[in-house]
Design a protein that fits this description.
Low-confidence stretches: 118-123
Helix content: 55-70%
Shape: elongated
Length: 147
């Protein structure tokens, strides 16, 4: 319940409680708070028991934590009735990306080794060479409205 409170924060809360309620009233306040928390827990447990009783025997294994979508999905996916673990283990994204990277690098090395002087019959395109224009050496007109 208080998983995110550190020791320094806890000490600060205790000092603040002593300052606000005083050392003589603090024990009674702690007893009142613990009594109230205990009553709230008892009330929630009886409410859960009443709901389970009203739902009937087909919901005997119903857990209220399953109403949280994250826990419901985690529970359903962990049961692995659909074979999702096999699918998940069969698909290795890192391996797939490494294969693609290797394929791209091998193509780049092949294209650089079979450059313009290697005698290939036009299988590669030299990207460093500017494309030839058909008689036009000027840029198209600038249109300010188009941008």
């Amino acid at each position: 319940m208080f998983n995110d409170i550190g020791p320094l924060e806890l000490v600060a809360l205790v000092v603040l409680a002593v300052l606000v309620f005083g050392p003589d009233k603090l024990p009674k306040m702690i007893q009142d708070v613990t009594r109230t928390i205990r009553k709230i827990r008892e009330f929630s447990e009886t409410a859960k028991a009443d709901i389970r009783e009203e739902l009937g025997p087909e919901f005997k294994d119903f857990e209220f934590e399953d109403l949280n979508p994250k826990t419901f999905l985690r529970k359903q996916l962990d049961s692995d009735e659909l074979g999702l673990k096999e699918i998940r283990n069969g698909f290795d994204l890192k391996k797939e990306m490494a294969e693609v990277t290797d394929a791209v690098h091998s193509r780049e090395s092949e294209s650089s080794s079979s450059g313009p002087g290697s005698g290939s019959a036009g299988s590669t395109v030299d990207m460093t060479k500017k494309p030839e224009r058909s008689g036009q050496d000027e840029r198209p007109p600038f249109d300010a409205d188009a941008t």
